[in-house]
Write a structure and sequence with these properties.
Layout: E1 4-6, H1 30-49, E2 56-59, E3 66-68, E4 74-76, E5 80-83, H2 91-111, E6 116-117, H3 118-124, H4 132-146, E7 155-156, E8 162-165, E9 167-171, E10 177-178, E11 187-188, E12 196-200, E13 205-209, H5 212-220, H6 223-226, E14 229-233, H7 240-253, E15 257-260, H8 265-276, E16 294-297, H9 300-304, H10 319-329, E17 340-341, H11 344-353, H12 358-361, H13 363-375, E18 377-378, H14 391-401
Parallel strand pairs: 6-7, 13-14, 13-15, 15-16
Antiparallel strand pairs: 1-5, 2-5, 3-4, 8-11, 8-14, 9-10, 9-12, 17-18
């Protein structure tokens, strides 16, 4: 695909002043989206009839166009990438054409007053795209081209992620769902969450968990009965719908948001996605950023242990029990056999994070990044359970009660 950058004089990752213009994707009415598609189509036909190219300007979504606003959120600057149909043949021409394929699909969808998930849309166009990821990328580009949010195109993310714990989930005019009774799998988070509201059931924390397996494990322990909280998982890198839920929970409940992620570069990068947003997710990503989310773990001491004893906070324990817990928690938490070496992907993600401002201004984050790089090994949260099945639950409760997060 032909790409021609139109760049400003801004330095990458710069801290910006108020006069800098950020790109922003707003919700559009259906009639406005249809009018924009028809306008682009008419201009395209005119250009072709005159044997001229018709370049498409897309928001640049890479590190050189990342800026930081006054709230610490990651934003896209004003740089664009221009794609030209005749600049290069082969894959460039194909990917140019795919944008029009999606716009034609969106036009039909909106004219029929329908909505669908990204997964459903992909299968409607499956003969044109090599995989779901290619479709998702092209959909973000169409959103960029039109200048609207993805939901304005009538296409939302597929159901992904879950919620459980001390909160009522109410969707539109439907009856509230008690998330303490959602079972070990929790309540599934749909792709469209604009009509969802929350009512606290005494929650004191929101705990965001990286992986579905750990989420289910904590649900089986009904951790909210020991420590009133709401659990949320995005099942890895979170879609916008999950980030929107966490953002709304934070705004509504007004309690600390804590993140529990694997001890590896990807785990840390997922935390930073919740915290600051992601340039790859387009110009609406910053709206769901939570700069105040705290890093609960895994930290270096969770994986390699520490000389200082960690007493598990279990209510009603006798002094003898507490002594046993102290002795246990003073040992390294993860067996050597459970540690894994970094991959090329881990190294790439690590290097991309090093330039982020958080590591310049926050000493705790900077120290953890240094230790992570020094070890060059990684550990999954589940590895903590290698000695005792309930180690993760104890660790989460203990660290929260002791405010061992930053």
């Amino acid at each position: 695909m032909s790409q021609r950058s139109v760049e400003t004089e801004e330095e990458p990752n710069a801290t910006v002043e108020e006069e800098i213009e950020f790109l922003d994707a707003q919700a559009w009415d259906t009639k406005d989206v249809l009018a924009k598609i028809e306008q682009l189509a008419a201009e395209f036909v005119t250009a072709i009839s005159q044997e001229q190219d018709f370049p498409l300007s897309l928001w640049r979504r890479d590190s050189r166009n990342i800026l930081w606003d006054g709230e610490g959120k990651m934003r896209l600057g004003s740089q664009v990438t221009v794609r030209c149909m005749f600049a290069r043949q082969g894959s460039g021409l194909r990917r140019y054409a795919l944008l029009w394929k999606i716009m034609a699909f969106v036009q039909k969808l909106l004219l029929e007053k329908k909505q669908c998930t990204q997964r459903e849309a992909y299968y409607c166009l499956v003969n044109n795209f090599t995989n779901q990821a290619e479709f998702n990328e092209a959909l973000i580009e169409v959103s960029s081209l039109i200048g609207c949010s993805r939901s304005s195109l009538g296409i939302c993310a597929a159901s992904s992620g879950s919620i459980a714990g001390s909160v009522l989930w109410t969707e539109g005019q439907n009856a509230p769902i008690d998330c303490t009774q959602a079972g070990s799998t929790g309540k599934r988070i749909p792709g469209h969450v604009s009509e969802v509201t929350f009512t606290s059931l005494g929650a004191r924390y929101i705990v965001v968990v990286e992986k579905d397996a750990v989420f289910m494990y904590l649900c089986e322990h009904r951790i909210w009965e020991s420590l009133p909280c709401v659990l949320v998982t995005g099942c890895g890198y979170p879609p916008l719908s999950v980030r929107a839920v966490v953002k709304q929970l934070s705004t509504t409940l007004q309690v600390p948001v804590l993140g529990l992620f694997d001890y590896n570069p990807h785990g840390l990068r997922i935390l930073l996605t919740y915290k600051f947003g992601s340039a790859r997710m387009g110009a609406e990503s910053h709206k769901f950023a939570i700069p105040g989310i705290h890093w609960l773990g895994l930290h270096h001491t969770d994986v390699f242990g520490t000389a200082q004893a960690h007493t598990a906070a279990v209510g009603g324990a006798s002094s003898g029990d507490q002594q046993q817990q102290q002795q246990h928690w003073s040992l390294p938490a993860v067996a050597q056999s459970s540690l894994q070496q970094w991959t090329v992907s881990d190294d790439r993600v690590f290097r991309s994070m090093c330039v982020m401002p958080i590591f310049k201004v926050n000493a705790a984050y900077r120290n953890e990044l240094r230790l992570l790089a020094g070890e060059r090994v990684k550990a999954e949260i589940e590895a903590l359970n290698s000695s005792e099945w309930d180690t993760v639950a104890k660790l989460v409760i203990s660290k929260i009660l002791r405010h061992q997060y930053f």
